[in-house]
Amino acid sequence: MGLEPVILEGQYVRLVPLELSHAEALFEAGADPEVWRYSCLKITTLEQMRAYLAGALDEQVRGVSLPFTTCHKSTGRPIGTTRYGSIAMEHK
Prior knowledge:
Blueprint: E1 8-9, E2 13-17, H1 23-29, H2 46-62, E3 66-72, E4 78-84
Antiparallel strand pairs: 1-2, 2-3, 3-4
Helix pairs in contact: 1-2
């Protein structure tokens, strides 16, 4: 039932389909504890980042969210993640 990945592009960032291969770059992007200051989530190890990404990808397969890696447009470097969540296919 999964959702089909798409690429969304803005002036400064590009949202690309999330991949497990982005884990190291995303872990590096989140190395500053201030990134997590207002988040319920606190990722402090690469293994936690991989688990977080795996969970997001599982939600995509189940058709309940569509996760993205946020990339700096001019460098292509992953700088974060986002997703469309709480998708209810029955509501189209």
